[in-house]
């Protein structure tokens, strides 16, 4: 009873009777823990540790529990007191140059020249066959459509009309082909491969109206001959609508190499875009000799389409759910499953922790290519704390300099594309259209370091990071990222698609000289890719920023009468084939 605490009122005060020494020590220890906890609560989420600012300082990282996001400052969902995860070393890795570039990169080179068996366009282009293309999606999704349009024209021995860009996507960008790409370079660079014209020539003083049709995704060469050629033979002018991912990965080598000649040589941005992009690169170089470019992919559209959850509570579910309703064909999401399977983008904080764990120091300069980040500055704050040298086109250039581009999402995306392409290290937060196009380009031009998170493995690591030291966490990140660092030989059958892994266009150097040896991976990879990404199996990573049309299996826009007419065209095609075979036998 002597240690029992009782209250006595004495001269208007609360008096606590004396207690045993052991109990007093216990109470003092408890008070000390309360003070420490209160101090942690008041500390910023990410702050430099170690007073005095001397070398060897550490950055203290706290994980929100649960994490938070916001849409507007007034709607900030603040988390409870976070837990100290670990101290992040300020310095970089001892790996040095190996972190910035692959030792094996110099063993490979881009090789896209046509073989002697690939006839000149003048010899194979048939008169009175004109192919028109209406692209779909954002800039990089449209870029894939333009590349494949050239291949489709070659398969059909048709003249290609300069493709029509999508002006009806979410951002309603009014740019046409000539506003973004150099038309003269496009036509002249491909003159030996495909005849390209600006518009269909008039007939009897009138512009011919094209026969419009849509073909399945991943259409093979035989598919084009069976579906499109009959229409060309009868109608002479055909327009393929919503032309995105409409050409198969399974093409013969010369057609794959044609894809590379279009993508990496013929398709150049206009001078105003190139000059502005180069200026941004120069300004990054002036700040630091080398830099990382990060394609963040944390825009509201992306997060909504992914069906993932990022800890923002009912407000996040309501906001992203409303955006998700734009895609009528999407199934109900299972956020936990999506994250376990590696189909969710990392948060900006997680990307920053991954890069620091790989060995990039906090003094590294980062260029962030992104649209509107969900959560704004509050979401970006942890990444900026991990990498204070944080840049974007908006911070590098004045409003006056960006004015000609600001109203056009495709031109703004083109500026990001240029800076990311010229960066020393490119980091893609999962696998969207821009990331795939840039990954392929960087492989073609010297296997420049390209990092993509192994989101499936990193998920469990981030989930349990409070239970390990920084050294353990860093070691596990480096282990999990093997095979995801852009090394020349890391691609495995069934992963990716041709624009990301242009294997037919990459050759290995022979000893002592460069030679056009075999591509360093089998062509059968294309077939494995095809099975892996079959028609109708697209996920959120296939969505380009600003696109608002549903992906996956699409229905034809042909009417019943169109179908009957198409059958007539196929009959014409059958007769044409018989005639062609008869001519071959005559010779």
Key features of this structure:
O-fucosyltransferase family protein; five-stranded parallel beta sheet; 587 residues; 23 helices; glycosyltransferase activity; transmembrane; alpha/beta; Rossmann fold; disordered N terminus; carbohydrate metabolism
Describe the structure.
It comes from Oryza punctata (Red rice). One of its GO terms (molecular function) is glycosyltransferase activity. With 587 residues, the protein is α/β, with parallel strands linked by helices. Among the domains are: 96-107 and 271-298 and 345-509, Rossmann fold (3-Layer(aba) Sandwich); 121-266, no CATH class. The chain has 23 helices and 17 strands. The strands form five sheets. The protein has a five-stranded parallel beta sheet. Strands 14-13-12-15-16 form a five-stranded parallel beta sheet. A hairpin with a 2-residue loop joins strand 1 and strand 2. Helix 14 packs parallel to helix 15 (376-386). Mean pLDDT is 79; it is low at 1-19, 34-84 and 521-568.
